[in-house]
Structure prediction request, 397 residues.
Amino acid sequence: MPRFSQSARGMRSSEIRRLMAFAADPSIISFSGGMPAASLLPTQVIDELYGSLSLEAKQAALQYGPTSGYPPLLASLTEYLRSKGLPFEGQSLIITTGAQQAINLLSKTLLDPGDVVVSENPSFIGALAAFLSYGASMAAAPLDDNGIVIDELKKVLDANRSRAKMVYLNPSFQNPAGIIYSEVRRREVLEALAGRDICLLEDDPYGELYFDERDRPLTVPLKAMAAAGEPVCYAGSFSKIFGPGLRLGWLLGPAEIVEKCELAKQSMDACSSTFTQVLAHEYLRTGRLPLYLATVRAAYARRATIMLDALAAEMPSPVTWTRPKGGFYVWVTMPESLDASAVFAEALKSRAAFVTGSGFDPYGVKKNCFRLAFAHTPEEKIAEGIRIVAAAVRSIL
Prediction:
């Protein structure tokens, strides 16, 4: 038998990755993948951007680049992040191969076996897998409609005072719950962490995907609100606002932390794709992002409304669900006696799929919840898919 490392022994399978095949099967109505609708990806923009590049830019795109990122992209991304109120004094910015790599780099840099990461419950399955792979233990506080429950967060922090090394939060249109933190809750989080010398990792891939302009003020990053000197790192991604196939994200944080992450990245992939970085720079520089966001916000808002209306019409009364104001997800909670895996198996018989919730539980035990992703599913199939899922719930009930 191979003698696996402690890191490999701590790896957790991703239920989402396992179920991605369903998203590619046209005979299945899939609510599994947390990915943009293929029909909404800016393919024409990609063609135009590449066609407009100079020979010098095309040559640079095919060459190795600095580990920290393609310098023009770092400049245009800095301008974009400043517009969101993010601070840069004493901070460094690095381009990563997706936000998942940003999470992994910070985990590699900060976590030792036995350290504790505090998260929401439920939490993003990809982040949980990264933390566990470095031998960390999880401690979690529940969510309500306004964010992580502050009293529970404080209890968890106090109980792990000597071991807690990082807090991981996804405050804007949280994956998987779909909720957004209120302004009050954001300030309470920062107050609860003040002076504890624990790194806060804010993961923000969905913050631009609000459905109503009136909710935009709620998406102000925690890092933009934090006091100077607090160890807050901010991870973001082009996956939901340009295209996931670019595999581009970023990490903004205190210089001493990000510089260590850059060293860790050198041993992982040397640099993220220069080709896609060149395209992302042109995308930002030419003002294409606001135009694209206006289109996808409207499309995802329609899909969310169709799903919520279908849930209200079809789902039996013991079942509850979140009502997102943006992002990709609805989180469904059934009576505790029910197992989402049984519902999934029943729904799959009628060709509908979703992601069961146990993988999003930092402790891996809660089985009565599941996640529905509406962004990738064609509008005309959402209501039919929800009817199938609701029928499966009723049959298990």
Q: What stands out?
A: The chain is about 45% helix and 15% strand.
